[in-house]
Write a structure and sequence with these properties.
alpha/beta, Rossmann fold, seven-stranded mixed beta sheet, 9 strands, globular
Length: about 400
């Protein structure tokens, strides 16, 4: 890809141009870990370099301890982690490293931030016909279609699920507010007025949308982005991410009130339109960034995807399970469910079905808006609902 002629205002120079030369080996180590399938978030890489600077290390053992503390490899991969460290910093190329390098690293992009690394040798692929894990970068332009989402946007806020806040508000009924009641007694010179009561305030739960923009979802991504814009405009706490072969946060772009401008901004941020799909690695990349995974805590999470994961689906199952543990409600909206003959019988869908709260039709805006407006109402778990229809 060539360099864009007009850089966005939020563009930053590449990492190599802003870091001192002495920091390059530490950044190279983080990249090496990613090549071998370790989940290393940008915040962890920055934390590793800050830890080294803070320690003022006297030996390589100090650097290794800083790497262990900040990059946090899984216990079962500790030996491989150490072998990679010794291979890079000690030059021990004879160290035995299990497995092959993972060249399909999932890149995380937060609206305008520079790319973490460039993927090589993309394959041209006809979008929508085959599900693939090969990255194909591209851009997309959204036509100015007038979607019937205005009514949905007005009805959204009161329809979202709520939780009880720790803050209390005055109420006609509820628990006595002793502090304010005693204050009134003092002000009334000992007279006993009616006691002040309070109740816990209710606040809307956050909403998190994870939108699959791979080639197999090509026919639906434009509608999903329009829906996401309506949700961001109609609710208070919403986060939107796209994923294919990369993970991109597009929430800020969708906060622009004008829909055409918002979709144009979102389209310029996302670089993996209509390419391959890596659902499991993308969701794991989302969960590996602490401030991203915090968006899922107590939220209604909606995954807009066909869930067609190629190859081993264990990463996808693990990531969906972790999402389900954080979320208040985890839903998968798949366009495949629009077919009356659809059954969740693929290996990936069968594995995640017990984790999901909802598995719904995502083939049209009408079905999606109807489902989202029903999120506050209880419903049977996805596995129980689909067992009755099978």
């Amino acid at each position: 890809m060539g360099v864009r002629r007009h850089m966005p205002k939020s563009w930053h120079p590449p990492v190599e141009q802003t870091l001192p030369r002495a920091a390059a080996p530490f950044l190279d180590f983080c990249r090496l870990l990613r090549r071998y399938g370790f989940s290393v978030a940008p915040e962890q890489a920055a934390g590793f370099m800050r830890a080294v600077a803070l320690l003022g290390p006297r030996s390589m053992d100090d650097i290794f301890e800083a790497a262990l503390a900040t990059l946090a490899p899984r216990p079962e991969r500790r030996g491989e982690f150490e072998a990679l460290f010794r291979a890079l910093f000690h030059g021990e190329t004879s160290a035995v490293i299990e497995g092959e390098p993972d060249e399909e690293e999932t890149i995380v992009k937060d609206e305008g931030a520079g790319k973490d690394a460039a993927m090589e040798d993309p394959r041209q692929e006809e979008g929508g016909e085959l599900s693939s894990a090969i990255e194909q970068l591209g851009v997309r332009a959204f036509a100015g279609v007038d979607d019937p989402l205005s009514r949905f946007q007005r009805e959204l806020r009161p329809a979202l699920p709520v939780r009880r806040s720790f803050r209390a508000v005055p109420a006609a009924r509820g628990r006595p507010d002793l502090r304010r009641s005693l204050g009134q007694i003092v002000q009334a010179d000992g007279d006993v007025p009616l006691p002040v009561r309070r109740r816990r305030k209710t606040v809307a739960r956050p909403l998190l949308l994870l939108i699959d923009v791979s080639g197999s979802m090509k026919q639906h991504t434009a509608d999903y982005l329009r829906l996401a814009h309506a949700i961001v405009q109609g609710a208070d706490r919403v986060e939107v991410f796209t994923f294919g072969t990369r993970l991109t946060r597009v929430t800020s772009a969708l906060r622009v009130r004008d829909r055409a401008r918002a979709l144009e901004a979102a389209a310029s941020h996302v670089e993996d339109w209509d390419g391959g799909t890596r659902i499991g690695p993308s969701l794991q990349a989302f969960l590996s960034v602490p401030r991203f995974s915090a968006f899922a805590r107590g939220a209604a999470v909606i995954l807009l995807s066909d869930a067609l994961e190629r190859g081993d689906h264990s990463q996808m199952e693990t990531a969906v399970r972790r999402l389900g543990q954080r979320a208040y409600r985890l839903s998968l909206a798949t366009p495949l469910a629009g077919d009356p003959r659809f059954q969740p019988r693929t290996a990936a869908l069968a594995a995640i079905l017990p984790i999901l709260d909802d598995l719904v039709d995502g083939s049209s805006l009408a079905e999606l808006t109807r489902f989202i407006l029903s999120l506050a109402r209880p419903a049977p778990a996805a596995e129980a609902a689909w067992r009755r229809t099978s």
